[in-house]
Amino acid sequence: MTISFHTLTVRTFTRMLTNLLRILEKAEANAAERKIGPEVLAGSRLAPDMHPLTFQIQSATDRAKFALARITGKAAPSWADDEKTLEQLRARIQKGLDFLATFSAAEVDGAEDKMITVKVAGQDTEINAQDYLLNSVFPNFYFHSTTASDILRHNGVPVGKRDFTGS
Amino acid sequence: MTISFHTLTVRTFTRMLTNLLRILEKAEANAAERKIGPEVLAGSRLAPDMHPLTFQIQSATDRAKFALARITGKAAPSWADDEKTLEQLRARIQKGLDFLATFSAAEVDGAEDKMITVKVAGQDTEINAQDYLLNSVFPNFYFHSTTASDILRHNGVPVGKRDFTGS
Q1: Which residues of chain A from 51 to 110 reach within 8 Å of chain B, CB to CB?
Q2: Is B142 buried (19+), middle (13-18) or exposed (0-12) by CB count in 10 A?
Q3: Which of A34, A134, B14, B139 could join A165 via S-S bond, C-beta 3.0 to 4.6 A?
Q4: What pTM value is reported for the model?
């Protein structure tokens, strides 16, 4: 059996975004319990010069969205990046999951050699889809997803690594 | 062209651990500049009930090590988990990189269907190597690598996402 590019992309992102959705649900319940306003955790950061939770979730969903759009040539829907609450961030993740669900294995499998144009240091650079996924999309997607989880944990939300990995 | 399991594993881990090595070098230089003792950042955490930087680096290197050992059937070297300083953590990452460098494409490619036994909730469970990599190794490896970077950034070390992704 060869490795399926659909499995590598759609299944990975779907699994991880679903876990992130559960983490946000726990954060919302915990914020309600601690009487923390709906925008506080969404605006929290690990350092003053790091982006807040809103940005981490927007970026994770964007990385998955643009990866599939670029790999298949399908248009990426535009999302406004105006989420301010945990509830709105859950809706953002759901939009990501809904978009991922529109890709069939037949559309994605075999696209690993497709040449994709990305900006590297401001220059258009051609890279094949497999290298794009492994060198750019995965590190960025996992960075933002993990940092989202780390921000919540740092702020006392009872989520652990198992919520993140889903196992 | 099919997707290479060697690329997916050895190249991913080598790339990310090399980036982490550069991040630790920056942390060491920054700690020296700020006159922070050699064990302080290594023992730092994002939350009192989260593991410190030492554990994050030990876990990231262990995940890569055990993945390749299990996939190929090669014995995994035993590492003592006794690192206490950033310098020792760099040496730990170098051990990981050296171990990864011993695997040829011929040893790893095609192993994606091999059945691997892992513990799930205390029970021995059989899973194929590809699912093991995507569902368990990658989420765990990236979680610990990102959290290592997040701990340093949270503590004022001037490292950013580009140090992590290497692009």
Answers
A1: none
A2: buried
A3: B139
A4: 0.97
